[in-house]
Amino acid sequence: MIDSQNLNPPPLVEAIEAASQAMGFTMASDRLTGSLLRTLAASRPAGQFLEIGTGTGLSAAWLLAGMDTASVLITVDRDEQALAVARRFLQDDPRIALNLADGKPFIDSLLGQEQTFDFIFADSWPGKFTYLQETLQLLKVGGFYVIDDLLPQSSWPEVHPPKVTRLIATLEQMDSLHVTKLNWSTGIIIATRKC
Questions:
Q1: Which end of the chain, C or N, has fewer beta carbons within 10 A?
Q2: What is the dihedral of CA 91, 105, 42, 57, to 10 degrees?
Q3: Domain region containing 160
Q4: Overall number of domains in the chain
Q5: 68 inside domain
Q6: What is the spatial distance between Cα 175 and Cα 180, in angstroms, rounded to a whole number?
Q7: Residue 133: which residues within 8 A CB-CB, separation 6 or more?
């Protein structure tokens, strides 16, 4: 079995990848992660989805490909230029709400509205390395919390590996979560809230 073969990416993926490359955006999730997101999204019919860190919309395209017509994806990013690419390709899909905002106040606003989600993909500092507890308060019991980019990368500064180690240890010690670590793709954790 070769995991990178026959991924069947959604039609928009190649166009978003090309637009991301043209603008020098290198932070997008890879296709293996995208394929996993699509598969997990399909397990949540009529689901409420949250993505923290839209980037150029690549992960959102994979999520949308797995979501049914009754599902909703709320996604947020503070990078206006990257979000403009996501808007160009995704804004016509009625299931997605694209938001330009900083992660922390946006998470606070969701908490203030008492919103909860079946699926959270945290692909930015807020929701992952910072504001983790607040983000997990938004996760329904049985919901998925997914993060990637946990395996060493050449672009990481020296101070980053200890932060990843602390994050993983923090998630492992949470009694409210079942945690699975995947030494695959860029390094992924899938956690499910159990209480």
A1: N
A2: 40
A3: 29-193
A4: 1
A5: yes
A6: 14
A7: none
Sheet strands (E) in the chain: 48-52, 72-77, 96-100, 117-122, 139-147, 177-182, 188-193
In-domain check, residue 6: no
What string of pLDDT tens digits covers the 195 residues of the chain? Answer: 888 888 899 999 999 999 999 998 888 889 999 999 999 999 999 999 999 999 999 999 999 999 999 999 999 999 999 999 999 999 999 999 999 999 999 999 999 999 999 999 999 999 999 999 999 999 999 999 999 999 998 888 888 889 999 999 999 999 999 999 999 999 999 999 998
pTM of the model: 0.96
Domain assignment present for 63 = yes
Instruction: Report whether 193 contacts 136 (CB < 8 A).
Output: yes
| Inside any domain, residue 10 | no
